[in-house]
Specification:
By secondary structure, the protein is α+β, with helices and mostly antiparallel strands. The protein has one helix at residues 37-45, and strands at residues 15-16, 23-24, 29-30, 35-36. Strands 1-2 form a two-stranded antiparallel ribbon. A hairpin with a 4-residue loop joins strand 3 and strand 4 (35-36). The longest helix is centred in the last third of the chain and has 9 residues, at 37-45. The protein is elongated and about 35 Å long. The termini are far apart.
Length: 46
């Protein structure tokens, strides 16, 4: 089972952030933008 790099939970599926490359689950980022919550927050600040 894959592990989310952000919450460190075992999940069914991880997505890779297009900005920083970490693997994140559906609750730790935006799947539509393919950004983890950290990078998604950074984009919102700009």
């Amino acid at each position: 089972m894959p592990i989310c790099d952000i919450c460190e939970d075992k999940v069914d599926k991880v997505n890779t952030c297009t900005s920083c490359g970490v693997d994140f689950c559906k609750t730790c980022g935006s799947i539509s933008q393919m950004l983890c919550e950290d990078c998604s927050t950074e984009e919102d600040d700009e």
